[in-house]
């Protein structure tokens, strides 16, 4: 199988670098083909601007989404963007390796998403009508692929729980797992998270190594996060969860299939009131 590893850390000798190297070695040993996008080594351009579009007239007001759509359709995107899009289409699984900085991904990785997930490629696809708002959240260009976050975290695990001061990790990662991975169709696997990463000792590394290998072994077999499909009948014409669904859940968890709920819900025109 083909695996793309998108890696965002400025220091090759970091813990993130070690996890990246471990993933490449272990997955290759399992017979998979692995490609790495090392964003810092590539000197990846993180800013989304008019320079992303080869045919954008100089001095013309930039409407980035509109320009992205035209460039993707017309074949006038920058070569670095096209190359990353081709890697995503080649891959059957994607691993994002990064440190949690200020409750999110590093700016260089966010810039990769901003530029690579172009209009017509990762969003703005499919037909809109009735309860259907295009092909997204479980459908789309990248459907049929899996993705997993491998995240190093400086804080302690209790800080990232339901009652922890930093908020539950699933809530912090929701914009990435639901919005970046699931939106264009990829299945999101539960993240591999490593806490107190700046305090990891050499004696603790073997247990981390084995835990990560186990997760890599299940890259194509582990059960993904059960996000609701946008076009599975769960949402009304305003894309609001229909009454009677998500009972007992709160926050972002209402967008997960609850026990006993069918993956495909009855399609009606029911509104949220």
TrEMBL record:
Record-linked SUPFAM superfamilies: Flavoproteins
Keywords: Oxidoreductase
Gene3D superfamilies: 3.40.50.360
UniProt xrefs under Pfam families: Flavodoxin_2
Protein name: NAD(P)H dehydrogenase (Quinone)
Flavodoxin-like fold domain ranges (all copies): 1-204
A GO molecular-function descriptor: NAD(P)H dehydrogenase (quinone) activity
GO cellular component, one term: cytosol
Species name: Myxococcus fulvus
Superkingdom of the organism of origin: Bacteria
Family: Belongs to the NAD(P)H dehydrogenase (quinone) family.
């Amino acid at each position: 199988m083909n695996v793309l590893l998108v890696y965002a850390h400025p220091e090759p000798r970091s813990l993130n670098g070690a996890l990246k190297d471990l993933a490449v070695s272990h997955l290759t040993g399992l017979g998979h083909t692995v490609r790495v996008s090392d964003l810092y080594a590539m000197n990846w351009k993180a800013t989304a601007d008019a320079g992303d579009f080869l045919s954008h007239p100089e001095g013309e007001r930039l409407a980035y989404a509109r320009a992205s759509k035209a460039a993707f359709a017309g074949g006038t995107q920058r070569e670095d963007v096209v190359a990353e899009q081709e890697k995503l289409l080649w891959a059957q699984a994607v691993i994002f390796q990064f440190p949690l900085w200020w409750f999110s991904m590093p700016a260089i990785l966010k810039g990769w998403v901003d530029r690579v997930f172009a209009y017509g490629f990762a969003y703005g696809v499919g037909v809109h009508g009735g309860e259907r708002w295009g092909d997204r959240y479980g459908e789309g260009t990248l459907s049929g692929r899996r993705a997993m976050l491998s995240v190093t975290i400086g804080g302690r695990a209790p800080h990232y729980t339901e009652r922890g001061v930093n908020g539950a990790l699933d809530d912090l990662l929701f914009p990435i797992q639901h919005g970046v991975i699931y939106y264009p169709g990829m299945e999101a696997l539960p993240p591999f998270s490593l806490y107190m990463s700046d305090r990891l000792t050499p004696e603790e590394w073997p247990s981390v190594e084995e835990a990560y290998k186990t997760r890599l072994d299940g890259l194509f077999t582990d059960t993904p996060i059960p996000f609701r499909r946008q076009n599975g009948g769960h949402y009304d014409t305003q894309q609001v969860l229909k009454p009677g669904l998500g009972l007992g859940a709160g926050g972002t968890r209402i967008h997960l299939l609850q026990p006993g709920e069918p993956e495909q819900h009855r399609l009606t025109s029911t509104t949220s009131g």
